Amino acid sequence: MTRARAGLRAAAIAAAGTAAALAGRLVRRWPGLAALVCAVAGVWTLAGYSWALVTASAFALLADYRAA
Asked: What's 4-66 look like in SS3?
């Protein structure tokens, strides 16, 4: 059971990294849309959805600050 949990956690981290990379591209092309995506991800997270959304939105915001 512990190995299965570790595998799921690794998959979630990889998915969050992929989402962050895509969010970085989104920020560069459409900054307004990226801000909307971050806001929606934050609301979903407050509603109890996956922590991967928080990670992706945090990286998108970081990329936005770097682009500015």
From this structure: HHHHHHHHHHHHHHHHHHHHHHHHHHCHHHHHHHHHHHHHHHHCCCCHHHHHHHHHHHHHHHH
